[in-house]
């Protein structure tokens, strides 16, 4: 883990001191090396390893670190064309902010202390805020940044105070020790205060208002990182905290949270059917999927945890790919409106097939990995309480409807005369699409990589 963190830090230093005209080649080379190093190392983890400096790597944090080091370079590559009109200094600042997010993500997922997890969790706030407010597409990016900051900070203060209270009562905040001996005497109020910050970050329905705004205004790299990785920090923290106070959560909180998330996921799916903005629709889709994921994890069984991990990793890949494809359309039409973008597919021979694969993955169609995770989660939810079967079943149906609706709107109909653009997909865009296909294929062939 120290090797990975040192490599990322070395990349940041190299970008700072390198000539401005060599920035992008250096970044692509270094981040590709980080991708290979991190993927090989994190996917080979089979037992808990706790090296020096209080860093933890296990079967929960390992896949998420692997997802981070895989998608950060892809996000940078997808954003190259959007930065061509900016100065070399602004492009360098953008790259440094993204690499800084990667350091905070790695530290968050590898910290063996809940305080370290909290610091890394909050550390991503400032660089993400700059990405949204500085490189956003419209004037509303300032409002989106304010929503993002206030939702995160207001929910994080109770978490910090609760962690201090727990440390004073138990003299430790170690994740390893909490896995061995959960804190059964903690109050329900402290448990709720701890979890609310991560439920906002996931987010679940009713705590999600910041997410569509942030997604719509963020640049494509910001949207890909936000949906694919930053939202998974909420799920990761939620899993870790359930081990910290298993008894109060299982006794009092889960019975209310599970049906709330199930019905919230259904309502968010219905909201997706009303969206005309492509990025906004994908953002609401993430809220729906993450609501059902939290409902499944709240059952607190090994079956549910395995399903939750598969859903988090698979959704990270699929949502990143959808935002990348949305950006491919946006660069050619300068609009995200679904009805305007229809018909452009006739200029791209392979794009309808790509959209079909990722739309099918988003709706959880077998044998794609989303279906494996959702099967585990739905089984856990229904086994907990048969009443939850109704919103879960309806949520799956609504997800299929809006996923196929997006595919149909974007990949059918004739070209409008005012919307003809002869630009073809370039090698960079083919590479970003391929780098989303590869991990999806790996999960199809070997889902135990993240569910072991």
Automatic annotation (TrEMBL):
Keywords: Electron transport, Membrane, Mitochondrion, NAD, Respiratory chain, Translocase, Transmembrane, Transmembrane helix, Transport, Ubiquinone
Record's bilayer topology term: Multi-pass membrane protein
Main location per the UniProt record: mitochondrion
GO molecular function: NADH dehydrogenase (ubiquinone) activity; NADH dehydrogenase activity; ubiquinone binding
Domain of life: Eukaryota
Keyword flag Membrane: yes
Segments crossing the lipid bilayer: 26-48, 60-81, 93-109, 115-132, 144-166, 186-211, 223-247, 253-274, 281-300, 306-326, 347-366, 386-410, 430-450
Classification via InterPro entries: NADH4_N, NADH_UbQ_OxRdtase, ND/Mrp_TM
Principal EC category: translocase
Protein family per UniProt: Belongs to the complex I subunit 4 family.
Protein's name in the database: NADH-ubiquinone oxidoreductase chain 4
Organism, scientific name: Ophiopholis mirabilis
Gene: ND4
